[in-house]
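Hi support team,

I submitted a single chain yesterday and got back a structure, but I'm not sure I'm reading the token output correctly. Could someone confirm the output below corresponds to the sequence I sent? I've pasted both exactly as they appear in my results page.

Thanks,
R.
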Amino acid sequence: MSARIWPQEARIVRAVEQGVLAANPRARFMLHLARWWEPDYAVAFLQAMDRGKVRVDDLGLTYYPSSGLAPSNGLADFGRSVRRIEARRKVPVIVCEYAYPSLPTFAGMFASWNKPVDGYPLTEEGQARWIADFLAFCRKAPDIRGAFYWSPEWNSPEMWTAFALFRPDGSAKPSLASFGVTPGTGEGSR
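Hi R., thanks for writing in. Yes, this is the structure output for that exact sequence:
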């Protein structure tokens, strides 16, 4: 990757950045990686972008703890990776995508993303508790600048229903309250 792919990628990204800066000189740039559990990989990628003169204001990470892709999936594991990346590269992290399922079995291409995190069953209540704990964790983490839940409204029986924050009938799951939103009102509790 560092010899053949990343130098080419850096040239493309740098050209895009130059075009964006021509239109908006105050633009900020983020690179988004899915492999949060490999901080050495993330740092190597960022170093390759540095060598290619790519501007990286923030690093975006994806965190789907129930995917089974990471050897360990807890909040402490995620936090350790984020701290290692930030300590070596000094770039703020934004969690661009995260979600947790509310069902133990579901269909579609993400059907195998049903590995529960210890203490958080794959139920609506487990989803709500995991989201609340994850957001509390992010608020306390000095290396995390923000977090965005992926597709809270996406209800497709072939795809994302287990991760959605709304049931197929449109009613809110308990997890919506984890964001400080009172279901049914659209109003925050803070």
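A quick pointer for reading it: The mean pLDDT is 92. Let us know if anything else looks off.

Best,
Support desk
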